């Protein structure tokens, strides 16, 4: 059985996950106890994390203890970065290769922590199975988009919930595209 990749992310109402400079201070102060409980429930149901370099560096800049303890975290990067915790593996590979390695290690529910570029690449590659978005009632006007790249794909609403802060969480399942071979028309030959 292939592992599930879940893109669980917080977004402004206008579709940005961070300010243009990468800061996420606009939603940290709004989180209420019911949101924290929902996040802890989600976190307890995953067994590994997949993260992009930009998100990892933003977490390093924030300082403090590693915010995702006791779960293996694969960070996709070409750079030699410091490891913030023992459970972090810094590697240079494709998202598909990382997912294959996590599957081989027995992990079945993987949280795609971010960021926008990695999420777009995973989405385009057909790796994302679920999308959980916390829509914060805040308009940024500009910033880092939810997905940097991607292809058109339909989603099926699985669940929704409203938190005391006014944040709306929507949970979608990604509809997998059928692998239909493209028919190449035969060349026309004019017989004169």
Automatic annotation (TrEMBL):
InterPro entries from the UniProt entry: DHFR-like_dom_sf, RibDG_C, Riboflavin_Biosynth_HTPR
SUPFAM superfamilies cross-referenced by the UniProt entry: Dihydrofolate reductase-like (SSF53597)
Domain Bacterial bifunctional deaminase-reductase C-terminal intervals: 3-158
Gene3D superfamilies, per database record: Dihydrofolate Reductase, subunit A
UniProt name for this protein: Dihydrofolate reductase
């Amino acid at each position: 059985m292939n592992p599930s990749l879940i893109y669980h992310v917080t977004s402004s109402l206008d579709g940005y996950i961070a300010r243009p400079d990468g800061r996420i201070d606009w939603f940290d102060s709004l989180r209420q106890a019911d949101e924290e409980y929902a996040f802890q429930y989600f976190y307890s149901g995953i067994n590994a994390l997949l993260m992009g370099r930009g998100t990892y560096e933003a977490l390093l800049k924030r300082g403090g203890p590693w915010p995702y303890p006791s779960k293996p975290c694969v960070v996709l990067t070409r750079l030699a970065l410091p490891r913030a915790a023992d459970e972090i593996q810094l590697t240079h590979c494709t998202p598909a290769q990382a997912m294959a390695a996590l599957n081989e290690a027995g992990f079945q529910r993987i949280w795609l922590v971010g960021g926008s570029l990695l999420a777009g690449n995973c989405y385009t590659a057909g790796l994302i199975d679920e999308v959980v978005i916390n829509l914060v009632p805040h308009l940024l006007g500009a910033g880092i988009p939810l997905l940097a790249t991607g292809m058109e794909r339909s989603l099926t609403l699985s669940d929704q919930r409203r938190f005391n802060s006014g944040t709306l969480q929507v949970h979608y399942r990604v509809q997998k595209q059928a692998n239909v071979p493209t028919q190449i028309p035969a060349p026309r030959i004019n017989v004169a």
